[in-house]
């Protein structure tokens, strides 16, 4: 019985070992798709506002995987905007005293990301990854003008205040004006994250030429979140452990030789960050403190493209 079991055990062990192909590679790619930003919140008087601009972006993807031992290794991957369109942005509001568009402008965006992930390989091409990431999103706005319903917005704000000022004086001091004081401003959102995820890649099963599949997903928690707004550069907004990131991808391609391959790939990314506010001075004629706010905001993009792989 022992003579039968031993060869079977050795065969099983060798098959499992053969299903792990922990080899390094480098890649470079380009992808194009839609980048979307959403910002929403509530101001004095219970007035809700929202803006949801989108633009077209071309992204660069680059990086690689370094094998360390039989089952472990690490990734260093980057994503960066190569080109972004400039598009119209519309700010909408809603309240008990009216709704509509109160502001419009032009906006463009730029996104950069760096991921450092450590991976552990299981049999069959499956991999657990854990590590960190750096994200930076920049929103640049200009060409500001009042929306068609700016008058209703100003009136709704005045009605929501606890102030002795009449409507005309209030709007003159605190309302949207025909001439905007700020001609251009940039918001830069920066995050450092911890993340964990799963990956599958047929390359980690075998070094044979032929079709290649890969897919994966990660979820991240912001350890640090910081926002700089050039229209109010004297203020510093930061937080920790608020919001989350989610990323996913799927790819299919061909390994032409042991060292060269090409992969068509679809990528998706979403992140949410909570509102941050800083209390300013007390304004007696408004009977309240004024606040500087970075509203709750979301970044979401999808794209499709091609990556070239090599491992010379």
From TrEMBL:
Residues 1-18 form the signal peptide. It comes from Maribrevibacterium harenarium. Keywords: Signal. The lineage of its organism: Bacteria, Pseudomonadati, Pseudomonadota, Gammaproteobacteria, Oceanospirillales. This is Outer membrane protein beta-barrel domain-containing protein.
